[in-house]
Amino acid sequence: MMNNLQYFLIPFLDWHIMGLLWGGVLAGIWVGAIPGLSGTMAVSLLISFTFSWELNNALAVMCGVFVGAVYGGAITAILLNIPGAPAAIATGMDGYPLAKKGLAGKAIGLCTTVSFFASMVGVVTLAVAAPIIANFALKFSPRDFFLLAAMGILLIGSIGGGDPVKGIMAGVVGILISMVGMDPSTGELRYTFGNLNLMAGISFVTAMIGLFGVSEALTQFRDSRAKSPKQDLTKIMPDWTTFKKYLPLALRSSAIGVFIGALPGTGGDVAALLAYDQAKRTIRHPETPFGQGALEGIVAPETANKGAIGGAFIPMLTLGIPGDAITAIMIGALFIHGLRPGPMLMIETPHLFWMIVSMLTISSVALFVLGLLSVRPFSKIIEIPKSIIMPVVIILSVIGTYAIQNSVTDVFYMIGFGALGYFMRLYGYPTGPMVLGIILGPLLDSNYRRAMQGAENEIAQFIAGFFTSPISLFLTLAIAFMLFSQTKTYRKLRGID
Amino acid sequence: MKRVVGSALLFVLLAAGAAFAEYPEKPIQGYVMWGAGGALDNVSRAAAPNAADALGKSIIMQNKTGATGAIALTTVANAAADGYSILFGAENPNLYKVTGISEFDYDQFDPIILLMANVGVVVVPKDSPYKTYADLIAAAKSGKTINMGSTGPGGLPYVATNMIQKIHGVKFNLVAFDGEGPAITALMGGHIDAVAVGLLAASTYIVGDTISGLAVISPERIESVKNVPTVLEAFPGEYDSYLPWGAFFGVFVKKGTPSEAQNKLKEAFLKSYNDPRFAEFADKMGGVKLGLTGDDARKYIEQNKSVSAWLLYDAGGAKVSPEEFKIPRP
Predict the structure, then answer these.
(1) What average pLDDT does range A294-301 have in this prediction?
(2) Which of A365, A451, A457, B122 has its CA 20 to 30 A from that of A444?
(3) Residues of chain A with C-beta less than 8 angstroms from the C-beta of B210
(4) Residue B9: is its pLDDT beyond 90?
(5) What is the end-to-end Cα distance of chain B in Å, rounded?
């Protein structure tokens, strides 16, 4: 125990590590905020860059960038309605309306505060309950991931806005787009027309940048005469009563985040979307309705994606299984530095676990301080005339898209999605469900196939599985309830309306 | 006008200078055909920095993923054969022709070095009823349904499983995962009964005793997991025509790259390969160091191609017969 405490304190006492952590968070915030530049990309670049560094220093800068980047995505989502990272897709839905009302400072201030809180929830859970959660996460079978994805598909109702039919259509097209490329289980080519570039599939980040970034920029050009709202920056930090009001939601959403983050293969993006949906379903009377600037609509996704950071480290440090894309890259970094990430990591190198816990703690504090300090300068961005900021957004979108995998093809896809998104908006089709479809399509497709293969392609055996495994049963009931809660019968029973 | 002529002249001079300067005189682009954090990426990023030091110019690493590596391979195949675009590749291109993914494969490339091999290992959960490799095969022979993980046609698990099925005349129920890591995760959670994966993905769990290794698909035992027997110990002689077989990770340049550049690269990567840090890295990952260059490397690639292509074809996973491409049967 004393040893662990000692390991925990090392980063606090080493000014070098401390500096790298703070610098990493600051860089991460910018990387996250710029649409197209992502934490995943930054951390993979850091592997080569830190090759000759001492391991602790390399890990420090990676942890810092990770935490900063998850937070940074929210800034552009709130200010420009352009999520800087996939984990911030839900944040813009209520964040941007707030910014339009001149409340960007309040929104980012609250976002920063609850982010710090959620990130700490994740770190504490990692420190005290990592092995238990990791073993539970292993019990999730392909069938359960399928159910989780199905639950995510129901979100189309939550993020679709106005017309449900248009939302569903956009979602279905999104799922079809996600199928382009090689079939994950048989290698069969789908919708590729013999074109090698299509065989690689269409990355959802490309679609996201086009549908959210470029199409938003084009739309704002169209209404460029609208005046930018004056931002009220007198009160940034939420007071105690406000914080207390959102505490239960923050706690619930962080818990969702930690767990979804700990599941191998799902990360902050899925966590944030599920938490937003959960908030929308459980909070009946927000001060402002969801979609028009509800603060709950910021708290839920932003706490979930911060909780997912600590969550993603849980299977990584206990079992050597990555919880999301960034931890997958960090596992690679550990190998390159001569360690053996896996079940033996905690036994062979216990200090590493406590050092990472400590680095994440420091990063969370840095996030809080740097986040609050940058609210004022960031909020000014929205007051810049549209004719200046939007071209910058488009340029960054192009650079960011190219940088994902150095592919010009991706840039063309992105521009195509930008144009598509513009016309979708013009005719009242929401773009959110389409991106959701592209994100969840592969999760749905490959896990359904896997579950079927595991049931020897017997439909009866497949269906029986939903009721025989406790986790599947729970998820099935949850989905059934989510559907039932939308019916008139349920509303009558509860005496609503 | 004067300025245009001046800059044109300068350009010509520079270009001429480039032709005479010694390789390398600018940074080298390194294309990794699998994603960040994967086995190939780890091996490539472990070898590249030291090689770059030896070359005196940096190697800019980028992951260009998709179509099981065909995107990266095609990129380098379409670049100039000047040694400034190098490919960090795995065994996958050996199947591009028979699966119809691409007309390009390693025939259009010269291997600089094969760094590491990844041999197959059959693993089961810790509480599995199958204690030995013979148990597993006997159970499959008895007609019991055994759910075996896979990663889709052409992947190491798929080919290895087909090898086992063909040799012993058994049939497993294949469940496809997104990669070897997710397949092992599912194994730990008890969602599948067994999986044949590359040792690189499995060794840390075998050493950590969270899963059990039944047999390595290799003629000899592997140092990092010494207590796992080979398939030959359970079934002597039956695997002879297929072994040695395994995935590999190497560095390649387009055919036609000047031999001066090829030799420089070979020297640099051999230096990096011989660095004690690389040996430690290989051992930690559970990889088998290869260090093959020139004809030896080519021979290793061809052996893998022959085994994998024919196994895939016989299992019905290939579109075109290997015969069409004059790939000899193992």
Answers:
(1) 92
(2) B122
(3) 319, 342-343
(4) no
(5) 67
pLDDT at A390 over 80: yes
B185 at the A interface (CB within 8 A)?
Answer: yes
Q: Where are the alpha helices (DSSP H) in chain B?
A: 2-20, 39-55, 70-78, 96-99, 133-141, 156-168, 180-188, 199-207, 231-234, 259-273, 276-285, 294-314
The Cα of A454 is separated from the nearest Cα of chain B by a number of Å equal to 6
Indicate the CATH number for domain B28-118+245-325: 3.40.190.150
Give the integer Cα–Cα distance in Å for A148 and A151.
Answer: 5
Judge: A141–B189 Cβ closer than 8 Å, yes or no.
yes
First to last CA, chain A: 56
Architecture in CATH for domain B120-234:
3-Layer(aba) Sandwich (3.40)
Cα A473 from Cα A97, distance rounded (Å): 38
Single out the residue of A341, A428, A405, A57 nearest to residue A206, CA to CA.
Answer: A405
Q: Are residues B61 and B45 in contact, defined by beta-carbon separation less than 8 angstroms?
A: yes
Where are the domains positioned within chain A? 2-454
Cβ-contact B29, B21 below 8 angstroms: no
Question: At A157, which helix (H) or strand (E)?
Answer: helix A156-159
Task: Give me the helices (H) in A324-407, please.
Answer: 325-336, 345-348, 350-380, 386-405
HSE of A257, CA atoms in CB hemisphere, 13 A: 37
Across the interface, which of A181, A329, A338 has its CB nearest the CB of B284? A338
Q: Are B45 and A336 in contact (CB under 8 A)?
A: yes
Distance CA A199, CA A181 (A): 4
Give the Cβ contact number of residue A53 at 10 Å: 15
Lowest mean pLDDT among A29-38, A102-111, A151-160: A151-160
* Tokens of residue A162, six digits: 């106005």
Whole-angstrom distance, CA of residue A122 vs CA of residue A168: 34
- For CATH 3.40.190.150, list the domain ranges present in chain B: 28-118+245-325
pLDDT at B1: 47
Least confident segment among B60-64, B161-165, B183-187, B278-282: B60-64
Identify which of A359, A349, A363, A367 has the alpha carbon closest to the alpha carbon of residue A10.
A359
Give the strands of the sheet with B120-125, arranged side by side: B173-176, B147-150, B194-198, B120-125, B211-217
Q: How far A46 CA lies from chain B's nearest CA (Å)?
A: 11
List strand residue ranges (DSSP E) for A26-184, in order. Answer: 181-182
DSSP-assigned beta bridge partners for residue B245? none
For A270-284, what is each residue's pLDDT tens digit? 899 899 988 888 887
User: Which residues of A, range 199-218, sit inside 8 Å of B by Cβ?
Assistant: 199-201
Residue with tokens 């019968």: A489
> How would residue A495 be classed by pLDDT, with cut points 50, 70 and 90?
low
Do the Cβ atoms of A343 and B208 come within 8 Å?
yes
pLDDT tens sequence across A402-439? 877 777 888 999 999 999 999 998 998 888 889 888 88
Round the average pLDDT of chain A to a whole number and report it: 87
Between CA B56 and CA B51 the distance in angstroms is 9
B229 part of contact set with chain A, CB < 8 Å: no
Interface check B127 vs A, CB under 8 A: no
Which of B153, B182, B207 is closest, CB to CB, to A264?
A: B182
CA dist A217 and A394 (Å) reads 7
CA-closest candidate to residue B181, choices B42, B32, B31, B30: B42
Under an 8 A CB cutoff, do B185 and A138 touch? yes
DSSP-based three-state secondary structure for A206? helix
Q: Is the pLDDT of residue A325 over 80?
A: yes
Q: Positive or negative CA dihedral for B44, B50, B51, B53?
A: positive
- Residues of chain B contacting A456 with CB distance shorter than 8 Å: 145, 173
